Each structure stands twice: as C-alpha cells, then as structure tokens.
C-alpha cells in the first residue's frame, strides 16, 4: 500500500481533530474484564485462607458461592452491562436539568448497583470497589492509536473530546503502548465536565469548537461510534469513522449503517489500519518519522 494517498478536497479545510477516547483510542473490554475476574479470584482465595487479617466484614457464603459460579464469560457480560449503563446515562442526561455527576462518580455508583443486581453485594470491600471503578483510568491504547495520533498531530491539532472527566483523561493521555513507546499525547484534553453536558449533547461539540477557536467545518470528529459522529455532523463538523472491535453501533440496523456511509466523510473499516490509515487517506505520509508531536495540555 502506498505511504501517501490523495486526500479528499475537504481535508484542506480541517485545522483540528477531536477524538472520542473510550473504545476509539483505548481498549476497555479486556482490561475491565481482567480486573473484575482477578479481583474476584483474589477475594475467593483470601476467603478460603484462615490467614486473612482483613478487618472488613467478610462476604457471606451465599455471595462467595455466587462468585465461584461466575466464569470469565460472565464477567465479560458484567463489564458490558457496566459500559451499557454508562452509555444509557450519558445519552439520557439533560443539561441544566439532570443533576451533574462526573464519570468517576458514575462508574463507582453504577458498579455498586450492578454488583447488587448480580447478587454480589458485599463481595468486595469499599476500597476494592473504588479501585475497580478506577480501572477506567488505566486502559491500554489500541495498537494503531499512538502512531496514528503522532501522524495526525503532525498536520492537525489533536484534542480528546470525551465524556470522561479531566482526571481520567490526564491518566489515559499518559498511557504508553505495550512496547513502552510514546504516550497518547493529545495536544488538548476537552472533557465533558467543562461543558456540564455529555455527548451526544450539541453543547459538547459546540463547546469544543469554541474552545479550539475554530469554525465547525474546520474540525473533524474521529470516533468508532456512529452516534457520536452523527451528533457532531449535525453541528457542522466533519465525521471520520475508525472502526474498532466490538464498538460498532447500529449493529441491529443494517439500513442505518448503510445510510451512515453516505454522511460519514471518511470511513476506515476494521482491519484496514485504524488511525494510521485515516492519516494516510488524509494525505499524510505514514512512513515519516514524526517523533513526539504532543503539545501543551489544555
């Protein structure tokens, strides 16, 4: 495949790219499932040991029995429900009406609710629940993310635009690849707590464009979620879809996906190279050594 590609005409108008983070830039499933499963394994091991010195009330035998019955596949379903609860809450959030909660708070409170729903109330100590809820600060980047951001950042301003709060974004922005390579290195971190609204609220996209000092047509939203892109597109931004495993929305609506191909400005299918391929299609030479292009956080 050639290192460069003829860019679409609109690419010359773009000055900045905003990126969804959860699922688009970082992979959450394996990390969250592993954290849940390993913490449970440790809990069951300590519960069966007479050497346990914890001052916390131990889980009941009923809860321990329930935990022993869960497989990794069960924890994968649990993680998906946790993620789905987040998506449902952010989509239903009404700015200036719904009481504000940042995502750290929501992750913590929704985990408590979900443990009760799964009849696992009391399995973990409050400290363990809090630690599990903070796993979202420690998600690994997809293999294409760091290189893709470096390439894209060599031509455009790059900004995270996420429902995550600033504390999460700052931690994720420092995440390095599995080879210990450069961190994500977004040049700006735009979190929804800055706008007291959550994507897909128009307030978020309008606020991001305003804070970047640009016009909507000068900014492209990059995401693995068509709903995010659809909302950005409605506010005049360009839409770049970069597919990631398990992140496709509208998967039960084939017609809606087909129609999305008509309004998405650039579509990178799964397996085509992710953000590196997006950079190539935007006319960036993907063979160049761009080094660390991270700017000052803002």
From TrEMBL:
InterPro entries recorded: 2-HAD, HAD-like_sf, HAD-SF_hydro_IA, HAD_sf, PGP-like_dom2, S-2-haloacid_dehalogenase
SUPFAM superfamilies: HAD-like
Listed GO MF terms: hydrolase activity, acting on acid halide bonds, in C-halide compounds; phosphatase activity
Alphabetical keyword list: Hydrolase
Residue ranges of the region described as Disordered: 45-67
Compositionally biased spans, kind Low complexity: 45-61
Keyword hit for Hydrolase: yes
Acetylation keyword on record: no
Family the entry assigns: Belongs to the HAD-like hydrolase superfamily. S-2-haloalkanoic acid dehalogenase family.
Full protein name: HAD-like domain-containing protein
Natural source organism: Pseudoneurospora amorphoporcata
